[in-house]
Amino acid sequence: MDKRPNILIVMTDHQRADTALPEHPAITPNVTRLAQEGVTFTRTFCPTPHCCPSRATFFTGLYPTGHGVWNNICNDQALSRGLNPGVRVWSEDLAAAGYRLDFSGKWHVSVETGPGDHGWNPRLVTAHKSEHHGMRWDAFAKLTDTLKPGAERGDGQVLRPGYPPFRLYGTCEETPNHHDAKVQSCGLDALDTLRDKDGPWCAYVGFIGPHDPYVVPSKYLDMYRLDDIPLPPSFNDSLADKPRVCQRMRDQVFGQLSPREVREGIRHFWAYCTWLDDRFGQLLAKLEATGQADNTLVLYTSDHGDYCGDHGLFAKGIPCYQGAYHVPAIVRWPRGLRTPGRRVSEFVSLADFAPTFLDLAGVKPERRFTGASLLPFIEGQRPATWRDEIHTQCNGVELYYTQRSVMTDAFKYVYNGFDMDELYDLQNDPHELRNLAGNPAYTGVVREMCGRLWRFARDEGDGATNPYITVGLAPFGPAAAFV
After folding, report:
1. How far apart are CA 417 and CA 285, in angstroms?
2. Where are the beta strands (DSSP E) in 15-55?
3. Least C-beta-crowded within 10 Å: which of 54, 69, 163, 283?
4. Measured between alpha carbons, how far apart are the two ends of the chain, in Å?
5. Counting beta carbons within 10 angstroms of the beta carbon of residue 166, is it exposed (0 to 12), middle (13 to 18) or buried (19 or more)?
């Protein structure tokens, strides 16, 4: 009998890590149950606060310098249309090892290939080669009225002359035609179908919630009282010591929202997480009803987070704050997991799941990964060596910036090639309010963090090292990698 575990992956889109913790006010009983029966990786981070590069990292175990996906592959600003030649996705290895694979939901890794090209049976695939994300010129031609002065802003709305109004939150009717309802239905069907065949399986269910706009059925919004929703501790950050793009994003865009509207945005975001939790709970119930729960590893995670009011911002982008990078990661596997209910506080990356899945399947690939297997943690052990830092790589979203960061237990350093750098003392300033990068007392810390940053860049083959006089702007350059 094949004892290798089945694998069920549920990936949300845009979900902050804190909303998946039992102590958070977001009502997520099914995720809470998963944490009680599994292990929570409390410090899991994506490499870039953007769907495509983060998903490519999840599916390849590489950072953007390795897999080649840097921003949205579904529009004309794409820096690449898909993975670098020769990059392999872990699902191909599982398929070759006898796993049956089933894919439902958001792909957003390549417009050149889809899940079916990488070993999956695709049931419902979105964010793939046939889609365009953004607006065409003929659509902008219909927005000339937005250029007229005197427009009235609606509740939770951001006005941008010459652009369509942005709606941060709202309510809707719950229908089976909603993207995530259809994805859930496909996932439920997959669990029935996979049960009836021999050998292990892997099913992927990719939701698009709680991505903005946060539009949810009233039933879920009514679970939260607005008076109970606080503003984030960093909401009143002046951003005076932060890069100018952070100030512009807040002042020009989200600064239009009143404090009440910010709290409404947070309320709707939490309600969206609750709606998703219901969908997730039905998948868990199906898994148990079909008798497959005991030897199925369930992973609940997300591709990236959301500022959700932090520093007065929403969504995600170049501001390198933890809300956009910190993602949930909870694993349950009744047959193989030791000491349920544990929390692991080591730094974990989305790049770690590719080698983890291969380890579970008994596959020993010869290629290199940025990540490392989490199986020892799942089995109640700690690897003899594990990283003491986590890195990010970002070249922008549809506006291009060169940004790299490194975080340890004590500090976070952000190299912003386009503006001032950032340094935060995480022990005394966990909400990243006071930028210490320009303080001479911390020059030694900056130098150490630059060394860490450049060593990772060297190991990853990161090309953000050009020494030309107008672009080599780090306070300590790549030679710091060798001291």
Report:
1. 49
2. 39-45
3. 163
4. 52
5. middle
- Looking at 71-225, list the stretches that DSSP marks H as alpha helix, in order from N- to C-terminal side: 90-96, 137-140, 179-195, 218-221
Burial of 382 (0-12, 13-18, 19+ CB in 10 A): exposed
Convert the pLDDT of each residue in 104-130 to its tens digit: 999 989 989 999 999 999 999 997 877
Rounded to an integer, what is the distance from CA 209 to the centroid of its chain? Answer: 12
- Give the pLDDT confidence score for residue 397 in this predicted structure: 85
Find out whether 188 and 279 touch, Cβ atoms under 8 Å: no
- pLDDT above 90 (res 452): yes
Distance CA 36, CA 30 (A): 10
Q: Which amino acid is at 365?
A: P
What is the Cα–Cα distance from 410 to 430, expressed in whole angstroms? 10
Instruction: Sketch out the chain's domains with CATH numbers.
Output: 6-378 (3.40.720.10), 408-482 (3.30.1120)
> Is the bond preceding 210 in cis, omega lying within 30 degrees of 0?
yes
Residues 413-432: tens digit of each pLDDT? 999 999 999 999 999 999 99
The H or E element containing residue 279 is: helix 259-289
Length of the chain: 483
**For 354-389, how does the pLDDT look when each residue is reduced to its tens digit (9 = 90+)?**
999 999 999 999 999 999 999 999 999 999 899 999
Q: Is the pTM for the entire model greater than 0.85?
A: yes
- Number of C-alpha atoms within 13 angstroms, CB side, residue 333? 24
| Cβ atoms < 10 Å from Cβ of 176 | 8
pLDDT for position 1 = 60
* pLDDT number for residue 73: 80
Burial class (CB in 10 A: 0-12, 13-18, 19+), 465: middle
Strand segments (E) across 230-339: 296-302, 326-327, 329-332
Distance CA 326, CA 43 (A): 7
Cis peptide before 213 (omega within 30 of 0): yes
Return the residue matching tokens 């969504």. 315
Count helices and strands in the chain by DSSP H and E runs: 13, 17
Task: Please write the tens of the pLDDT for every residue from 390-410.
Answer: 999 999 888 899 999 999 999
Average pLDDT over residues 427-456: 98
